[in-house]
Specification:
Number of strands: 4
Oligomer: single chain
Shape: globular
Strand order of the largest sheet: 1-4
Number of helices: 13
Helix content: over 70%
């Protein structure tokens, strides 16, 4: 009973802290912290999507920067060339990213391990080349494109504080959707495919269908994060969507821990914080990601969140053992 009472209190306290965070940052004169939180939200959404594909379905993707780019450029171009309101362009571009993901996933669903990884890298490079050398310069090519901030129900989200609450709401919605999916029949099918695709097929699961579904959902999440990025920064260029961005997503996912709701959150926040803290060493960014991946492989195979769960389990067992001996 005590545990059940404490849990809602902890959740309420966390919600209150998240809602009050912009005011706290402003009070201490650290408004840059609000912008960092805005970026953290969109990275949490992107990495949570990648975790659906890898952590639950067992498909590795090293080209998710392509879907990030489709979401960003799709939203900006629809708004600039067709004057569609931004909130609608974000949704359309996100659906487009999911559709492209499904098209790519269908032939790629037959590939495994390094072959799938190479295929997704190739797709990422194709998208990057199109952005850099688009026909008639529709993407702005190397110059990039400027855009506007989100206008939601007549309210402009041009300030970091207003975008913070929009990002917080979007993150909550996407995490809840992920929780519902992974705890449904679809989620159980994904896990079965991850563990043994041949056995899953023998049990009557349509392996290709569920692999395509996982990839499309993952692309949907990353595409929406890309659209958020475009209208937060209000400028996009091809250099943002290189292979380095895909490596960053994978590093965040593995460092935090896969196959969980909280793992990608922990990974996105920690890796982005480390990257921001070491901004002066930006030219060594790939080296930093490589070092973090080595730490995961050698010392934290379950990621930071996975190791935290193991440690908490051991402490709980010790606590129960101490209670029994005292009794």
């Amino acid at each position: 009973m005590e545990k059940n009472k404490k849990l809602p209190v902890a959740k309420i306290a966390l919600c209150m802290v998240l809602l009050a965070l912009p005011f706290l940052f402003t009070a201490v004169g650290f408004q840059y912290g609000v912008l960092v939180c805005c970026f953290a939200f969109l990275y949490i959404i992107a990495v949570s999507g990648l975790d659906i594909d890898f952590g639950y379905c067992g498909q590795i993707s090293m080209g998710h920067a392509a879907f990030f780019a489709i979401g960003a450029y799709g939203s900006v171009m629809l708004h600039q060339y067709f004057h569609i309101p931004i909130i609608f362009t974000m949704v359309i571009a996100t659906v487009l990213a999911a559709a492209v993901g499904a098209v790519i996933a269908y032939p790629a669903s037959k590939l495994v391990f390094h072959f799938l990884s190479l295929a997704t890298i190739a797709f990422g490079e194709i998208v990057y080349s199109l952005l850099l050398n688009s026909p008639k310069g529709v993407t702005g090519n190397a110059v990039g494109m400027f855009t506007d901030s989100i206008n939601l129900l007549g309210f402009s989200l041009s300030s970091n504080e207003s975008f913070y609450y929009f990002g917080l709401a979007c993150t909550a919605i996407f995490l809840m959707a992920k929780w519902l999916m992974v705890n449904s029949k679809v989620g159980r099918a994904w896990v079965a495919i991850r563990e043994n695709p041949h056995a899953a097929g023998g049990m009557g699961i349509n392996v290709t269908k569920y692999k395509v579904m996982a990839f499309a959902v993952s692309a949907f999440y990353t595409g929406f994060a890309g659209a958020m990025y475009a209208h937060l920064v209000r400028y996009i260029g091809p250099d943002t969507f290189t292979q380095k961005q895909s490596v960053m997503f994978v590093t965040m996912m593995l460092f935090g821990g896969t196959g969980s709701i909280l793992g990608p959150i922990v990974g996105a926040v920690l890796v982005f914080s480390i990257t921001e803290g070491l901004r002066m060493f930006e030219q060594y960014q790939m080296l930093i990601y490589g070092a973090l991946l080595l730490v995961v492989i050698v010392a934290l195979p379950g990621g930071v969140y996975g190791e935290m769960k193991k440690l908490a389990g051991k402490l709980l067992q010790k606590g129960k053992g101490g209670e029994k001996s005292a009794a």
